Recover the amino acids of this structure.
């Protein structure tokens, strides 16, 4: 009985050791088997016409696909910046004649005082006109207060980080310098012509006398 | 003056159209070259032709969305493989077809092959295929993913590593370990048969 149990135990041990370390031939056979099984596992072909279906669906989707942050945004930003630049240049041109008269706060105050004095010395002026002049003299000058509240900087315009649109435009210019150069040339030419036209109009126009 | 402005705008637009045309051509080339690879990756993860085709389509839709950056991509094959893998994994999560379970999951016992079938029949037949599917599905995710990507014939270890975001050495060692597990299972099955 004891011998039988010992034999059984020995057989189990042999089986365990065989399972733990299969011989080389067995391992090779298992590897081959596994390779074949894995090859079979991955052997799959798509249904015929996959490319055509994908391309057709892409074609259908293309019109509705957002193109990341690419061309359309760049173009929109570039156009916005161009419009802004145009607007600014026009407004600065319109302001130039006014700015020629330099406004000194002290002289302005003196002028206002003089105006008030004139008002006092001319009682024949209509009441509404007098009221409006008084209101103008006593109106708080918010713009001046705001300007003095902001510290004066060494450089004008004060340096500040580029806005998103400016960065986009800069990226556009870096990426497509030829286009940017063409647009810049066209813009410069336009400005030159505008200036020449204005000059011609100014010289040819007769002074309008009252 | 106005003509020049229009001209500048037209130049800008024509440049834009040219760039878009080039992107479209590039995307079309990618479909021709890599749709099979994308499909196989998707199938390896999803194990369903229908889902794999949908995932292939979705992969190229994503590529279309980023077509403006296609020219800047250094390795289109790896890039598409990564997208395909991500799409397939997302889809498989949605489907909940793949469940990560331990190898000795008592709730999901592996089906047994009948002792009567011969070894050749088992290798060639449906049963071994089904069993392998089961074994691979039960592998831990860490081992399963490199293994199933490595079975896609177009994928090199470098590309598998790039797709999974791990090192090539890690890919090799994980595939080796996964194969070891599968070999043990095959050995057990062969032992049971004999």
């Amino acid at each position: 009985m004891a011998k039988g149990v010992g034999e059984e135990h020995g057989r189990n041990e042999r089986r365990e050791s065989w399972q733990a370390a299969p011989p080389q031939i067995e391992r090779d056979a298992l590897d081959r088997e596994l390779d074949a099984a894995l090859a079979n596992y991955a052997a799959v072909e798509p249904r015929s016409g996959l490319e055509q279906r994908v391309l057709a669906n892409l074609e259908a989707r293309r019109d509705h696909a957002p193109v990341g942050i690419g061309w359309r945004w760049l173009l929109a930003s570039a156009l916005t910046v161009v419009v802004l630049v145009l607007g600014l240049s026009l407004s600065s041109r319109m302001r130039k004649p006014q700015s020629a008269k330099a406004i000194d706060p002290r002289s302005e105050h003196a002028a206002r005082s003089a105006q008030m004095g004139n008002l006092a010395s001319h009682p024949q002026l209509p009441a509404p006109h007098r009221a409006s002049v008084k209101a103008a003299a006593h109106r708080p000058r918010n713009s001046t207060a705001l300007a003095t509240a902001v510290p004066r900087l060494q450089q004008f315009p004060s340096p500040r980080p580029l806005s998103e649109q400016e960065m986009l435009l800069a990226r556009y210019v870096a990426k497509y310098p030829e286009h940017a150069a063409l647009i810049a040339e066209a813009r410069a030419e336009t400005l030159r012509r505008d200036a020449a036209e204005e000059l011609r109009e100014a010289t040819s126009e007769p002074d309008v006398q009252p | 003056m106005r003509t020049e402005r229009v001209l500048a705008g037209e130049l800008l637009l024509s440049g834009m159209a040219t760039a878009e045309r080039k992107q479209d051509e590039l995307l079309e080339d990618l479909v021709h070259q890599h749709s099979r690879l994308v499909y196989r990756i998707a199938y390896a993860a999803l194990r369903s032709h229908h889902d794999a085709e949908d995932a292939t389509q979705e992969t190229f839709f994503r590529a279309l969305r980023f077509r403006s950056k296609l020219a800047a991509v250094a390795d289109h094959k790896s890039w598409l493989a990564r997208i395909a893998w991500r799409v397939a994994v997302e889809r498989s999560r949605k489907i909940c077809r793949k469940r990560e379970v331990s190898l000795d999951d008592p709730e999901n016992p592996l089906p047994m092959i009948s002792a009567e079938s011969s070894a050749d029949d088992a290798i060639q037949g449906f049963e071994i295929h089904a069993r392998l599917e089961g074994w691979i599905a039960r592998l831990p995710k860490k081992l399963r993913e490199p293994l199933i990507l490595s079975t896609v014939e177009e994928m090199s270890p470098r590309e598998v590593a790039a797709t999974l975001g791990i090192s090539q050495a890690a890919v090799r060692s994980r595939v080796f370990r996964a194969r070891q597990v599968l070999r043990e299972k095959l050995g057990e099955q062969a032992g049971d048969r004999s």
